[in-house]
Specification:
single chain, 258 residues, alpha/beta, 8-stranded mixed sheet, two-stranded antiparallel ribbon, 12 strands, 30% helix, globular
Length: 258
């Protein structure tokens, strides 16, 4: 039996998280034979938003709330780099991170996501990351295969996206540290050139004979509950009303369309 930390990145979508977080926890952990904790990471949140969350942690299924003010010692590049860089933890052998606007829906209630994740890591020592996000056709940087299947139905792919990433922390952290993952000036957001945590994590997972596993056949549908500003853009609308409408369409379609 393994121990997992599930960490959700939260900013200010207080209405949306009421819908996305309980669904994500249920889909990832019910049922499971493994132990886990749920951490809600409030990055760039207001003091007032965090104060409103505190009495609701049990209702949301959260074991721990982390709040860091980012006015000082912030990471460069995208604001989400602060979530990953400040709160990446190696205290658990397995870490699963997702965002407050991620729709995670399981189509087979008996499927143990944590157990399937642990099994991939245990049986494939070259796998550093596991990721499954179904709306990858929207990404500015396409998902492609970088070799033969790791196992039947488990693709070896070129990248991750932070809607849902599972880490073997002991395999990932030393390489990520060497590549500057926890140096605050590593990342870049410039027109025509982006280097964010997703890029660095993908570098770790595709270099030195390491691999990223994409379990295409899992009965798990994962989509970004937001729309792109324009086709091919890496940026969503960041409008909570739009995200709520996306969630409702995803819920009605069982995760097939937004």
């Amino acid at each position: 039996m393994a121990f997992f930390t599930l960490a959700c990145a939260f900013h200010d979508t207080e209405r949306l998280i009421d819908k996305t977080l309980p669904l994500a926890i249920r889909s990832l952990t019910h049922p499971t034979r493994h132990d886990f904790e749920v951490v809600l990471v409030a990055e760039r949140s207001s003091d007032e938003a965090v104060a409103r969350l505190l009495p609701r942690l049990a209702e949301l299924g959260v074991d721990e709330l982390r709040f860091r003010r980012t006015h000082r010692h912030a990471f460069s590049g995208a604001p989400s780099n602060n979530f990953h860089g400040n709160h990446f933890t190696t205290t658990s052998p397995y870490l699963i991170t997702f965002t407050d606007d991620t729709f995670i829906y399981k189509t087979d209630e008996s499927f143990d996501v944590l157990d399937a994740t642990a099994r991939i890591f245990e049986q494939n020592p070259e796998v550093v990351l596991v990721s499954k996000v179904d709306d990858h056709e929207e990404w500015d940087w396409p998902l492609t295969d970088v070799g033969p299947e790791i196992e039947p139905g488990i693709r070896s792919v070129n990248r991750v996206v932070d809607q849902l990433i599972a880490y073997d922390t002991a395999r990932f952290a030393p390489v990520a540290r060497r590549l500057g993952a926890f140096d605050r000036d590593t990342y870049v957001s410039h027109e025509g050139f982006e280097y964010q945590w997703e890029n660095l994590a993908s570098h770790v997972g595709t270099s030195g004979e390491r691999k990223i596993a994409y379990p295409e056949r899992w009965p798990l549908r994962v989509r970004h509950s937001d729309l792109r500003n324009q086709p091919g853009s890496m940026h969503g609308t960041q409008d909570e009303d739009v995200k709520l409408k996306c969630f409702e369409r995803l819920w009605e379609s069982h995760g097939l369309t937004k």
